[in-house]
Amino acid sequence: MSKIAVVGGCGRLGLRIALIAANRNHNVTCIDIDDERINEISQGCLPFVELNAEDYLEKAIKDKTLTVTMEYEPVNSADVVIISIGTPVDSNLNPSLEPVAGVIFDLAEHFKKDQLIVFRNILSPQIIGRIKTLLEEKTKLKVGKDIFLAFAPEISNDNFTINDISNNPQPVGAYDKQSFKLAETFFQTITKGKISFVTPEEALLGKLMLNMYSYVQAACANEFYLIAEGFGANMHKILDSCQTKENNIPNPHASKSGPGMHKEGWFLLEKIPFAELITTSFKINESMASYIIQKIQNVKASKVAILGMTSKANSDEIRASLGYKIRKALCYQDYEVVCYDPYLPEYSDSSVLKNVDVVILMTPHDAFKDLDHIKQIIRNPNCAFVDINGFWKELRGNTKTGGFHHVYYSK
């Protein structure tokens, strides 16, 4: 059993690894500045929706292997310090070092010799050399000799759950073998996946590339959808008729975004002359909201409903959600806009859907699968449904165009 301190440990990223480590008999302390979340976790309640995480928290509380605090003192006695904080870009889309530097300044007096420091958050490869320099300057300890440093971003996908960490690969970026060996020893306790020794730049580039590859694929699917629309063709019928396991185009998506997507691409574009692929992907994915609004202007409508305001299905994560973008744009067009999302308390009242003229599916929550139930709440037989994702099977293959459906009640 090791003593683990997770800085930023009440956020989604930090709490995931904290809970897994606590369930592997490590003694874990989550350090955070959010007292509301600290209180919730202390009482055994997750502060956000995280599939399967409730069981981990319940066990950690029962076994007394997890504590939460606002104080930095637990870093003094920790064997491993995991740093998991936000890494924003500035107004010019340049990576901002300030949050990470601030944490190093705050923790410097608490770091000790022979300690392993793991950066779990996504960072720009441009700034990690500066992180090493700052750590050495502030602690007066030499990385690889007196103190040890590793960069180990979480490897996940769109359907990721906390259980997947136990089997996912884990690249560990380190400047020296001893830092890697210490990180490897720790990660072997929480994952059966392959643990690879790479440079810090390689670890972060791998994470960024995986995320942006998914994002670029989504942009390609969205562009194909727009092409099909131009021919009056149904994109989902096209996909259903010709896809194989080897040739699998993802469904188009009205809200392909999510935490980091607006910044991670810029982390990759700092040193290359040909940035069109990623920048065009941003343009395509971010413009789908405007395309939807242009289309519904052809429908006689005054009241529009948005289904799903989160950035990820079956989650309460709202960072970078395009649902808020389309809501604002619709309001500017003088539509009456209502929103329904069972994962967000402020939008959890389904009665707002009554008598809407248009429904726009932004986030395909499982709770929305029963289209008949939604239609019964709406009580408008002439309601138009916008489902770019092809989520509702009843509509997927029975329309003239791929995403805009005029649906009537069965008599």
Write up this protein.
With 411 residues, the protein is of the alpha/beta class. The chain folds into two domains: 3-197, NAD(P)-binding Rossmann-like Domain (Rossmann fold, 3-Layer(aba) Sandwich); 208-406, NAD(P)-binding Rossmann-like Domain (Rossmann fold). It is built from 14 helices and 13 strands. The strands form two sheets. The chain has an eight-stranded mixed beta sheet, with helices on both faces. Strands 10-9-11-12-13 form a five-stranded mixed beta sheet, covered by helices on one side. The chain is globular and about 70 Å long.
Question: Rounded to an integer, what's the Rg over CA atoms?
Answer: 23 Å
Instruction: Count all strands and give the number.
Output: 13
Q: Considering the protein shown, what is the CATH homologous superfamily of the largest domain?
A: NAD(P)-binding Rossmann-like Domain
Oligomeric state: single chain
Shape: globular
Question: Quick one: CATH class of the largest domain?
Answer: Alpha Beta
Pattern of helices and strands: EHEHHEHEHEHEEHEHHHHEHEEHEHE
Helix content: 25-40%
Low-confidence stretches: 406-411
Q: What do the pLDDT scores average to?
A: 90
Second rung of CATH, namely the architecture of the largest domain: 3-Layer(aba) Sandwich
Structural class: alpha/beta
Q: How many structural domains are formed by the residues?
A: 2
Proportion of β residues? Answer: 5-15%
Q: Main beta sheet, described? A: 8 strands, mixed
